User: What shape does this take?
Amino acid sequence: MWDKPRVDQFFRSLLLNCNDEISKARLLAACSSQSGAWLNAPPVSSLGLRMSNDTVRIAIGLRVGAAICHPHPCAFCGKDVGQFGFHGLSCSSSQGRTLRHNFLNNIIYRSLAAAKVSSRLEPSGLHRADGNRPDGVTMIPWSEGRFLVWDATRVDTFCQSHRQRCAGEAGAAAAHAEGEKGKKYSHLDQGYFFQPVAFETSGAVGPDSMSFLKELGYIIITIIIIKFILTGPCSSRKMLTVTFYCYRLFFILAHSDVIIDVLTRESLLQDVKTVCKSII
Assistant: This one.
């Protein structure tokens, strides 16, 4: 971009003017890769992408650092809730913690299904060091003949235990959570490949999680292209449905413009056609 030097200079000045760790962490997270991709998701109710007015208000408020509520005591634990509402993101007594985790885990499960990879949620027989089960495992090998075992987590960027590291680097809390998850699964059999999936409440994604989701997104895009070539325009509705699975993967890859760009590359299309013919 022609104005990138000017934008970078303005961003550095904003960081220098931040008076606290929360502001720095919020600003760094807002500028991290894919943290704002949800802003481009079309509000389609049938695909579960339409957000309520309150959801949009809170999401925007957390992103720009605006006040979203009047200070009050938490209805669950009694602690003070400030005007920015950060307490609700990490309250251990909140009833939404399990719901958010299950929602994220279900998205991963459905996205694997869109990639034609069958899997099971919370499988029995696989236990981590503390005795709990992982979130899911694939029923077919994922990489190098090994089955994929994943465990998803969501960490709060602005809580006391994470804000210092997040004020130094975007996604630091998610990266730390990935490392902690890896320790719990260090005893897994060599026939399994463990993949942590860590997101932050600010939208930042852990580096290992981003690599995994990119790979998963590319598989889905490849399937879309093959279906488009084999079945023609009549499959466009299915193609968009699969694309929106990636949208729901918390800020990740498969935007419609990416698919359109890929479909216009004749060399790639020719390669895919060759592969399809060899399979058929």
Summary: The radius of gyration is 21 Å. Residues 72 and 120 are 42 Å apart (CA to CA). Strands lie at 72-73, 80-81, 119-121, 136-143, 146-155, 192-200. Confidence is low (pLDDT under 50) at residues 234-269, 275-280.
